[in-house]
Request: fold
Amino acid sequence: MPKESVFVNDFTNGILDPNGSMLGPVKDGGIIVANTAPGCWGPMITPALRGGHEVTRPVFVENAEIGDAVAIYIKSITVTSSVASSGNEVAVEKNFVGDPFVAGRCPNCGTLYPETKLEGIGSASVHCAKCDEEIAAFQFTNGYTIALNENKTIGVTLTKEASEEAAKKAKSYMAVPDNSIQNPVVTFAPHDIVGNISRLKPFIGQLGTTPSIPMPDSHNAGDFGSFLLGAPHEYALTEEELLKHKTDGHMDINRAREGAIVICPVKVKGGGVYVGDVHAMQGDGEIAGHTCDVSSVVTLKVKVIKNLNIDGPIILPVEEDLPYLAKPLNVEEKKRAMELASEWGIESLENTAPISFVGTGSNLNEAIDNGLTRAAELFNISVPEVKNRTTINGAVEIGRYPGTATVTFLAPIELLEKVGIYSLVKEQYNLI
Reply:
């Protein structure tokens, strides 16, 4: 029996598995409330997690069939961590097989995906539970520990002494959920940047639907997914398999924040909506590879769109986050345009509205091409037309370096109506 609300406090082992059990079902139009665990660094130093992240157990959505899409309304994001750590990384080659995000291995006893224990604080605190070998697959090249104020509007990076004090109660300060198995990265106490001030602007780094083949969660995207091609571990894929089965839920796009709508492809029955890797802040591109990962409580509303047949996500950002040229035209602008059109004998003008396509690939050029192609295929227009519209009515923006981007432009309303999503766009931007 579908539920109006589904509360999620369970996590995967890092693998998104279409054959695994899902929570729910939640009603078409229902609510998902999830208590999320930090992404990136905590899972990266927890080799029992096989995906580089620790996302929520997927939720089955009523009426969601393969070929449909699920519109996910981000109703709220409440950060629960009060301290976090992050930074740029280097992999420790002896502690993994082929991919440090996926296939951790103890260099002493040879155990794959070993259970671990924490001994003290600092970068050597993660040990194999079986043989006591130090086993973290990653270390910081430059890292920081950041304290967040009570109302989660500002953060300040800590000194060595303060970072080490926080490290002693890392799980509490990070508010790591009870069912999470990750080692809290605040335990490492990085402190290379001290006294820096940052504004908070929380968003969701992992939000999407379950791929149609078992896949490490952080690799459910074209850039990180390319690490799976011919990999020497059990989750290796071919290029054809990756392109066919991924859903690009690992976006790290900072416009996926409170108030936005993310439209996701359905590639397994029920969709399998999952969430995780909330970030307290991030500029375009996540250029350091990681940012301030936090625990949070996320509230989502889900709505099925029948037969949309998209390959990857579409975002309807809050209007403030739209590129200047892609913001909806106001009454005065339309009036001036009509006056100009009359001077040139043009009887009617296009009515347009914003839309943003996510593209991914092994590099940014591939990601941009992927976003352009997805837009062209949905609207049945040419890629050159999408390029022109993006140039004069939008922008290409970096989601994540090395290979996630958005292609945003004002699309003709008749095209939005034809594919069945104009009502959603109209609602998001209060169009008349």
